[in-house]
Amino acid sequence: MFDIGFWEIVLIAVVALLVVGPNELPSLIRNIGQGIGKLRGFLSSVKSDLDYEIDKANEIKQMIEKETEIARLHEIIEKNATTMPVQGKAAEPSRVETLDEPRQTETDQEPAQPLSDRRQT
């Protein structure tokens, strides 16, 4: 990380030993180690929170894109519905059966002519 070699670490330790003294050096090193550990924990917590928020933002972005696509498809459907005739509608409204009108069955119609009579005509 800092590109510090062995001799640089030894030099820093000697200077710290001279400045702080041999009695306080172990507690100083322990405090520095605890501070670095707390700092790493804090940074990992911040990183995980940022990753979570970025994931949520990406989900929202994808949902917005899907909603935009759905809205575009609805516009296309509405445009085509007004310009294209709807299949399955009756051509003449008078031919549409209602529930009030009885259906005409074969027994209500004229009796069928025998096959021999049909050939003569």
Describe, in plain words, how this protein is organized in 3D.
- There is one protein chain.
- The chain has 121 residues and is mostly helical.
- The chain is rod-shaped and about 95 Å long.
- The chain is built from 3 helices and no strands.
- About 8% of the residues have low confidence.
- The longest helix has 59 residues.
Quick recap of the structure?
The chain has 121 residues and is mostly helical.
The structure class reads mainly alpha
Total strand count, please?
Answer: 0
Total helical segments: 3
Low-confidence segments? 90-99
Shape descriptor reads rod-shaped
Biggest sheet features? none
Instruction: State the order of secondary-structure elements, H for helix, E for strand.
Output: HHH
What proportion strand? under 5%
Mean pLDDT: 80
Distance from N terminus to C terminus (CA atoms, Å) equals 110 Å
Q: Helix share of residues?
A: 55-70%
Rounded radius of gyration (Å): 45 Å
Keywords:
single chain; 121 residues; mainly alpha; 66% helix
How are the SSEs ordered, and which strands pair?
Elements: H1 6-20, H2 25-83, H3 115-120
